[in-house]
Design goal:
The chain has 459 residues and is of the alpha/beta class. It folds into two domains: 253 residues, Rossmann fold (3-Layer(aba) Sandwich); 200 residues, Glycogen Phosphorylase B (Rossmann fold, 3-Layer(aba) Sandwich). Helix content is 40%, strand content 17%. The strands form three sheets. The chain has an eight-stranded mixed β-sheet, sandwiched between helices. A six-stranded parallel β-sheet has the order 13-12-11-14-15-16, with helices on both faces.
């Protein structure tokens, strides 16, 4: 098969550019030369699982010759229209701030409903498709689809590869019979989809030749939902080459800037500030264990998502959730033992993993949980919510510890097993986890994705 021209679509862009408020350049009216810009000052790579997966995959398949060129379309209102990287052209979609607000409300309503948070309330969820905000959501997706169609006229794509729930209508709106693949990155539970949404979701899903999900449970849930199209499970993945393993001498000064002392025992959570991430569960567990383990500290690494960033949708969710967590830690009298790092660089993240005694994924509901794989790559034991897709890869007590996020004492019980003096359990879990991580490596993913894309294009 000849190398493919592929159009990738995500909500979150690969690169986020500095805004005037960040001290960056006031306007991005021309296509910039990245070689003349400073990473970390003028722009940064977006945090989050989707971009951390898609970019390494694209680079790998381009290098192997499976793909010829990638045009990547994403929402990025504070960015130049076009940015070029080797083999990849980024196309940034901009919509005005008022429309962005409506889009953001719909996106958050879908997110909270699917995750069982129901912050929007049942009435808004039921009437979602009749609201003015939904018109803005549709406008954004239509604008994106029209750009992709225009690019197709010039490039002649062999495949459209659309990622995540915000972009679900795109396949239906493209109006083409060319192959389309959709990857659903968040949890899928048919029981959480309101009845008023089902026919709309079903129509959108039918537009794709293949739907990819992150766990076998989600694949079965899509069948229960009534989707008759092809659904496959491909585990999310990371590129181990992107992770460093700094020495203790390199780690110490980095973590010291975060308020971590040499005698502290660190439980690490890597997640954006979001109620679905369940950091409050870990603070409650810390409070229960505080007297028994006086050196234990909880480190919360991460800030907001693209939706919360000034360069993104500008939603206030992350700041609100962090304020709640800070207040909760004070109420439980452990505020001095909870460290909020905010956004961290990759070097800082590597140092935090290396310094941690173990990691925790306490989410109330999680599409997969790539941070568990990251923990395994750093040879750390991990405690994982049973509500995460990655939980199906874990045998409790063998390569990780599982807990029910709705059981107030479950996490503390599992943490205590790792914190007991002279316990060898953490080493055992880390050793087995490093083996399990191979199932979520880019090597395995590239083979599976290339095979799938080949089947779809040649069908």
């Amino acid at each position: 098969m000849d190398p493919l021209n592929v159009c990738i679509n995500t909500q979150t862009p690969l690169l986020q550019f500095a805004t005037p408020d960040d001290g960056g350049r006031p306007l991005w009216s021309i296509e910039p030369d990245l070689a003349k810009l400073q990473l970390g000052v003028d722009y940064r790579f977006s945090p989050g699982g989707v971009t951390r997966m898609v970019y390494p995959l694209a680079r790998r398949l381009l290098a192997e010759g499976s793909w010829k060129h990638v045009d990547w379309v994403a929402l990025n209102p504070n960015a130049p229209e076009t940015v070029r990287l080797p083999g990849i052209t980024l196309h940034n979609v901009a919509i005005d701030r008022e429309r962005m607000g409506g889009y953001g409300k719909v996106k958050e309503t879908i997110w909270t409903t699917v995750h069982g948070l129901d912050e929007a309330g049942p009435k808004l969820s039921e009437d979602l498709f009749w609201t003015e905000d939904y018109g803005e959501y549709t406008f954004y997706n239509r604008t994106t689809a029209e750009l992709m169609r225009t690019l197709d006229q010039d490039v002649d794509f062999d495949l459209f590869y659309v990622h995540d729930f915000q972009q679900l209508p795109i396949g239906h709106m493209l109006g083409t019979l060319k192959p389309k693949v959709f990857r659903w990155h968040i949890p899928f539970d048919a029981g959480r989809i309101p009845l008023q949404w089902r026919s709309v979701f079903a129509t959108y899903l039918k537009a794709y030749d293949v739907v990819i999900v992150s766990s076998d449970a989600y694949r079965e849930a899509l069948k229960e939902f009534g989707h008759a199209g092809r659904v496959i499970r491909l585990y999310p993945f990371v590129d181990p080459a992107e992770y460093g393993h700094p020495s203790p001498d390199e780690v110490a000064p980095i973590v010291a800037t975060k308020g971590i002392g040499p005698k502290d025992v660190i439980a690490l959570i890597v997640a954006r500030m979001d109620p679905a991430k369940g950091q409050d569960r870990a603070i409650a567990a810390l409070a229960e264990l505080a007297e028994e383990f006086p050196r234990l500290k909880l480190v919360l690494a991460g800030n907001g998502s693209f939706s919360s960033a000034r360069a993104g949708l500008g939603l206030s969710k992350s700041a609100t959730w962090r304020a709640h967590l800070e207040s909760f830690a004070r109420e439980r009298r452990v505020a001095s033992r909870v460290v909020f790092t905010g956004h961290v660089t990759q070097a800082e993240l590597d140092a935090l993993y290396e310094r941690s005694a173990f990691t925790i994924l306490p989410s109330t509901f999680e599409g997969f949980g790539l941070v568990v794989v990251e923990s395994w790559l750093h040879h750390r034991a991990t405690l994982v919510t049973t509500r995460a897709g990655v939980a199906e890869l874990i045998v409790d007590g063998e390569n990780g510890l599982l807990f029910d996020p709705d059981d107030p004492e479950a996490l503390a019980r599992q943490m205590r097993r790792l914190l007991r003096p002279r316990s060898s359990l953490a080493q055992k879990l880390a050793d087995a986890g490093a083996v399990t991580a191979r199932k979520c490596s880019i090597d395995a993913a590239a083979r599976a994705e290339a095979r799938l894309v080949g089947e779809v294009v040649e069908a």
